Amino acid sequence: MSRPESLAPMISPQTAPGAVRSPKTAELVARTLRRMVVEGQLQDGDFLPHEAELIAHFGVSRPTLREAVRVLESERLVEVRRGSRTGAKVCVPGPEIVARPAALLLALSGTTLADVMTARTAIEPPAAKMLAEDGTVEAHDELRRLVEAVPAAWEAGNLAAASAQLHRRMVELSGNATLGIIAGMLHEIGERHTAAAISGATPDNTVAKTEYTKLHKSYVRLADLVESRKGEAAETHWRRHMVAASAAMLRGHERTRVRDIMD
Q: What InterPro entries has UniProt attached to this entry (predicted)?
């Protein structure tokens, strides 16, 4: 974890708000620091420059600077340890920063699990194609490991977590950042939905065992197609998989809403 030695090389006079005196000064300071994170000038784990240096550079008061830092803290771009001498540490967020608010919005709007499954079916097959055609060898290897992490025998709790992680990472590994963020937003909902859908099944349930066998074979097939870089085939296979999975997971949950499975 590092701390920039000086702000001068990192902030140009054109972008720094300097000694602006207005009700929006804190927002202007926050905007400049935010841009430094977005552009990689401040990276995950770095500390913001010392308070005195920031005050001198921006020409603002200590309360204004602290308000700017609080803005970044509310956005979860920095972490401030009260009473610590190290200052504010940069924390580059992942999809989790929007996952909970997104789930809350879906819950408040009365969104059904069927609606969520329709959205997932729309984004996952194209992601499978992109992963097959453009994914790196490392990405393909990770997908294979995710498939292998799915329990070889019926384990309801572990199956839900492993399956949800596979779906999420498959989209993230496709290389499309927008789709990856959406998949991350829906991850917890997907995991809870899967857990709810299989909660009543037991290892000696013939139907459950048969469907599980099909599920595992489908995952293996996806990994095979992706590694072979057969994009069209991977997309077609995964669309069929998602349609079948939707039918199975929504059985008994046709009208279940997101709010019904979230805390």
A: GntR_C (IPR011711), TF_FadR/GntR_C (IPR008920), Tscrpt_reg_HTH_GntR (IPR000524), WH-like_DNA-bd_sf (IPR036388), WH_DNA-bd_sf (IPR036390)
